[in-house]
Amino acid sequence: MDFTILEIKIQQFIDNHINTDVSKVALQKNPFPETDWALILQQLAAKQKAKSKLPTWFETPTILYPSKISVEQTSSEKTAEYKASLVFGESLIDLTGGFGVDDFYFSKTLNNVVHCEINTELSEIVSHNFEQLKVKNVKCFADDSSEVLQKLNQKFDWIYIDPSRRNDAKGKVFMLKDCLPNVPELLDFYFSFSDNIMIKTAPILDISSGISELKNIAQIHIVALENEVKELLFILNKNHKSTIEIKTINLLKNKQETFQFQLNSEVKNTNYSVPKKYLFEPNAAIMKSGGFDEIAIQFGLEKLHQHSHLYTSNEIMDFPGRVFEIKNTLDYNKANMKSFLENQKANITTRNFPETVENIRKKWKIKDGGNLYSFFTTDMTNSKIVVLCEKLK
Q1: CB 161 within 8 Å of CB 132
Q2: Could you tell me which residue ranges the PG-1098 ferredoxin-like domain spans (predicted)?
Q3: Which of 56, 92, 232, 378 has the most CB atoms less than 10 A away?
């Protein structure tokens, strides 16, 4: 790493252009010929990305950044903080350290953290940054994680892994065996060094696929940030043999929405109903979990249709998702569309409906936005309906 990038004049240049399009800055002549211009632009682009995602790094002087892509792929501070709330004990080894955001938060919970990163330059960047961030209980190793485990030859309370897809796996169905490291193949080896393993995966992974590839799964956490699923966390315990607990978490600005259930536990029959006074739409983490009947049972709601995943009740409640007051329910036909929605302004959601939002807008000339929310869906009699609502939450 070229540490001349940390010179005060270069850092001031980066800060002065933090709100400027990098492509425009790139057209300038390099004012610091002794430092690679591409590196300066890389630092600028990555720091811009860190502004909202990694405020602690952004606000700390003389931080080094890897590529903008590396910053995009790293955990956000909010999701890293959540992961740190799940671990306990004294020690953790991160086998896929990356930019070190997760380990920064693990270090606040545990006394000893080991950061393994096979990319020497990235390991050097992380080591430097931990000094700037005044983190003293993380050791960085620029080596293959399996070799580090064998060299250290000690038991850890936790192993943390964020496997990355191999380049030759593009286009294939996302499987853990197609990632580096190959966690399913190495599980027994990992369990010889720790009884507890946390595996982070991208939200694209099918949960049932992850379950089929792994063993000893105690919990699966589905983590969303502002209603966008960011990661799946598989918590494995060496001695766990019973059912899997599914936990969903939606990290919002001022609160957390949580919901949990036991996988494959016996669910009572779900009740169905026509739209009542209120409509409930589960958050993205619950939708990813597949707990569509469990959410109805736990909150005493009725579903509009088996596959619509919209719920209704005459009672309002604190619900993990969006809540609407129903103003009207229409059969989906030309006359109703012309009377109530054509040439109007409305927010459109489709659930278990044969037409896309784009097609509906175009067909009926509906403008986007406003205070009217319209759900195009299928009801319990398999009829196509439109539920017109006002958003309460």
Answers
A1: no
A2: 278-320
A3: 92
